[in-house]
Amino acid sequence: MARKTAPDPASAPTPVTLGVTEIAAMTGRTVRWVQILAKEQGIAKEARGKYRLDSVMAALVSHYEAILEGTEKKASASRATDARTAEIEQRMAIRDRQLIPIEDAIMAQDKLVGVVNAELSGLPARISRDLGIRKKAEAEVHGARKRISDALAEMSGAARTGIGLDEAGGGADA
User: Fold this and answer.
1) Which domain of life is it from (predicted)?
2) pTM of the model
3) Is residue 51 classed as helix, strand or coil in its secondary structure?
């Protein structure tokens, strides 16, 4: 097995250095921006206006990672703010009775249909004493109650699922 030896310091490559204007040209930034980056990130300086390439690369990566992290934090904060805003709007809609629990809406429909049903039940007797006319009226009332009941079931199902709510009861308008 071959022995590993420590690299000879004399054979180590000399670090590549770049001038401030070269770095500015390669990054598409101004000389002043590069100088500020060098100061903030502690870029290794070899001589006046000369920086080590490895140090410049590390500083650039660090700089842009910090920008990305800040952008991600802003996006996360924005999503959280949007969620809070939606929750507040929903609470205000509930308070203003623009949004009600589905059970309350269905109970109101049921109660209204119950009143209509009760009114329709006594209608044939109020229309006529003639049994023939009364039988015809009862048949019509029975048909109307059936259609109302079917429409109520359809609208209640649509209200619970939200599917077809716009179309529910559409046949009654025609």
Assistant:
1) Bacteria
2) 0.40
3) strand
